[in-house]
Amino acid sequence: MSHGALDEGCRVGERPCGGSMSRFVQALAAMLPLALACGLAACVDQAAGGGAGARDQIRAVGSSTIYPFTTIVAERFLATVPHARPPVIESTGTGAGIRLFCAGVGAAHPDLVDASRRLRRGEYAECARHGVDQILEVQIGIDGIAFAEALQGPGMALTPADIYRALAAAPLGRRNTARLWRDVNPALPAIPIQVYGPPATSGTRDALAELILAKGCEAVEPDTLGMHQRDPNAFATRCQRLREDGAYVDAGENDNLIVQKLRSNPNALGIFGYGYLEQNAGVVRGIPLSGVAPTYATIASGAYPGARPLFVYAKKAHLRAIPGLRAFLRQYSALWSAGGPLVKRGLIAAPPAVQRRAAAIIAHEVALDPRVLH
Amino acid sequence: MNKRAAPVARQPTDWQTPAMQRHVRRRYAAERRFRLLGLAAVCASAAFLFYLLATMIAQGASGFTETRLALPLDLRGHVTVTRAQLNGAAADLALAGAGLENAVDAAADRAFPAQGGEALLSDGAWLRVRDAIKRHPRLLATPVTIPVPVATDIDMAYKGIGTPESEAAVAALGTHLSRGLNVSFFTGADATDPTRAGIWGALKGSLLTMLVTLALAFPIGVLSALYLEEYAPRNRWTDLIEVSINNLAAVPSIIFGLLGLAVFLGTFHMPRSGAIVGGLTLALMTMPVIVIAGRNAITAVPPSIRDAARALGASPIQVVFHHVLPLALPGILTGTIIGMARALGETAPLLMIGMRAFIAAPPGRLTDPATVLPVQIFLWSDDVQTGFVEKTSAAIIVLLVVLLAMNGLAIYLRNRFETRWK
């Protein structure tokens, strides 16, 4: 009787109760604590070894402009140093990268930060407050901030003053209402002002503010000359704010997206690093600034107004603790020469004197003197 | 006009009157409209899907192939390595130290000086020669012709999207070029040169991450579902838990990323970018889905089964493990696999915990820094070199195939073990 009832219950499931499914479930039930234990063991293992302890791979964060160069360095490092662990390189943007870098000394914090502008004095102070006061500053090369249009575009030629009048939030103290390029300079064509550029966290955006807008502001409003040194904050509010009414479009950290937008809209302008201009020479062309076109030669010689240095900052305290970090830094100096692999990928080599100084900083581990920053 | 109150014998409807005909036509038209609307909706979604797949396959298919250059190579006198060195564990180092890379570049310079010489070769060309030598050491002693991968601009020109210079080089090289399956795409990790970049690093990262997610989310999710359905008393607390779980399943994934950043990296100091942290974060995200699917599957088991088992003297735990769980398992597994598929395609929370890094080797352990497939796609789509466009599409195809396989497994499990209650 009872046997029959059991069978009845079993048949509902179309499969015998004592069959494979039930055994499978029992095996599963036996595995649960095991899986849990494994998970927890891994956690504990990590809690002990992950944070404060040693780390055997190099970590770099920072600028999306320098990211491709640092990845090449990482690849060469891996190929030349036997048994090296693969370095971990994250593209976070310069500002966010410096914040991560400055959060402290130890395995939990990155060893290197790629910066497409110089460290600011305030950022250094923040670093020092967390114990990161011994920093190597290595200039790996130069980049140009390029203004570009599609090949079938109108063939613009701009000056920093034009760009300031077109893109600043309040040129001459009045809200910017210019709609056409002709509004800012009668010599320019009557097409709408539409510029795709980097977001506020980007080093390229800082370069736009410091190299182009500042110069344009000083040209348009001569009373701001020297204000940069006297009162940087007031200068930034007055000269370096971008308009927010849609004429300047923040295109995110994805520079390929800007190139695509230019291709589909020939009247728009794009702002990105020179490397992207070079790689996409079949689609876009550089716009001359003050009559100087962005080319390798003009940026390297400093004739192009939008040239900026690119830096890698390293923590001196990590040089000893992280295996291979010294060799990694030396790898930069082996690759940054004119004609070298980094230059083939779009970097512009720094002048020989700058390269010698940077190589000496790496060789003798000379820490940055904060007094040179501003 | 009939008086409403008067009981009149009902007249048969006259379908032939114009008013009635109009009415009927309208009804048929409404029916047709609705059917067409439904059909249009299906067609539109099918068209979108087809467009997505067609573009991906059209752009990505060439990502699985590589262009090879038949390189005449005579290494006699250029590379001196002993047989013992070649058989030892340090063969790679020995060959690199013996100047193999320079020898390969020099061979290209000698064979194709007019077309660009060593600039024709991929960064990884000498690695292909190295592996060939390790398999057949006699290559060092005889002049041979080895097909090696070409540089990315030549590769792109051979595939039809090149600059004028590279297209001229391709035309000049003619039959020296050939096309073949890019095996290193399936075995390599991320690289700066698109001809060397591979998907295995990201795929392995995804698999490790999913392993952690499954090992955590499945047992905890199933146990929670069992407890809530079979044991928990019905009161305000269980109601609260139920509402919380439903809410948790609807929370945007980026929030879980922030949680993972604060808890696993901030409090527990786990390694940034590690597959284990990614797995833990995604487990948090997947768990509510498994609990909800599990509870639905357990509720669907008829109470008569439990009553029958109890009546025969089974203990509650025997009821659960001998009867309820086996019958509910197909539903639970389907829910689990759908939750895992969602976790596999997730990017946002992983960006928060640093799994967006360039890593030139596949992860070996759970704690090694890793990337996952969707993040790799994101990274490649952002790369400046045009050669990465097809690699991006190829990686998307790999991701879609993995997702398809997981969904296929879910359908198989459902059909294999599903029980239809009569």
UniProtKB/TrEMBL annotation, chain B:
<keyword id="KW-0813">Transport</keyword>
<feature type="transmembrane region" description="Helical">
    <location>
        <begin position="394"/>
        <end position="413"/>
    </location>
</feature>
<keyword id="KW-0812">Transmembrane</keyword>
<feature type="transmembrane region" description="Helical">
    <location>
        <begin position="36"/>
        <end position="58"/>
    </location>
</feature>
<dbReference type="InterPro" id="IPR005672">
    <property type="entry name" value="Phosphate_PstA"/>
</dbReference>
<dbReference type="InterPro" id="IPR035906">
    <property type="entry name" value="MetI-like_sf"/>
</dbReference>
<dbReference type="InterPro" id="IPR024573">
    <property type="entry name" value="DUF3333"/>
</dbReference>
<keyword id="KW-1133">Transmembrane helix</keyword>
<keyword id="KW-0472">Membrane</keyword>
<protein>
    <recommendedName>
        <fullName>Phosphate transport system permease protein PstA</fullName>
    </recommendedName>
</protein>
<keyword id="KW-1003">Cell membrane</keyword>
<feature type="transmembrane region" description="Helical">
    <location>
        <begin position="319"/>
        <end position="341"/>
    </location>
</feature>
<dbReference type="Pfam" id="PF11812">
    <property type="entry name" value="DUF3333"/>
</dbReference>
<feature type="transmembrane region" description="Helical">
    <location>
        <begin position="248"/>
        <end position="269"/>
    </location>
</feature>
<comment type="similarity">
    <text>Belongs to the binding-protein-dependent transport system permease family. CysTW subfamily.</text>
</comment>
<feature type="transmembrane region" description="Helical">
    <location>
        <begin position="275"/>
        <end position="298"/>
    </location>
</feature>
<dbReference type="Pfam" id="PF00528">
    <property type="entry name" value="BPD_transp_1"/>
</dbReference>
<dbReference type="InterPro" id="IPR000515">
    <property type="entry name" value="MetI-like"/>
</dbReference>
<feature type="domain" description="ABC transmembrane type-1">
    <location>
        <begin position="203"/>
        <end position="410"/>
    </location>
</feature>
<feature type="transmembrane region" description="Helical">
    <location>
        <begin position="207"/>
        <end position="228"/>
    </location>
</feature>
